[in-house]
């Protein structure tokens, strides 16, 4: 039967000022080559940059959608104004010809 005895916190957020991360499992983890490679650091930095870019893209997309809605609304207004202008022009032409 294996017994595992934990001797303290696993990460620095859980430790008091007088404690250290000297547990055997933590020491083994820190010696693992994957935690000390520059590639791991680049991946961590890249994922945080990617997360920021995704948030920025999401904000920009919502702004673009708002602008699109505003453009569609403006287009409807311009079509209505065009219909009013053409109706006024036809009425003036009709009145100038004396066909009333």
From TrEMBL:
Q: Which InterPro entries is this protein grouped with?
A: TEKTL1
Superkingdom of origin organism: Eukaryota
What PANTHER family does the record tag this protein with? COILED-COIL DOMAIN-CONTAINING PROTEIN 105
This one is known as Coiled-coil domain-containing protein 105-like
- Natural source organism: Salvelinus namaycush (Lake trout)
């Amino acid at each position: 039967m294996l017994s595992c005895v934990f001797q303290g916190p696993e990460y620095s957020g859980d430790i008091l000022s007088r404690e250290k991360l000297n547990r055997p499992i933590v020491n083994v983890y820190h010696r693992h080559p994957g935690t000390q490679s520059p590639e791991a650091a680049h991946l961590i930095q890249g994922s945080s940059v990617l997360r920021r870019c995704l948030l920025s893209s999401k904000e920009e997309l919502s702004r673009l959608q708002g602008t699109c809605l505003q453009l569609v609304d403006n287009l409807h207004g311009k079509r209505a104004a065009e219909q009013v202008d053409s109706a006024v022009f036809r009425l003036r032409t009709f009145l100038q010809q004396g066909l009333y």
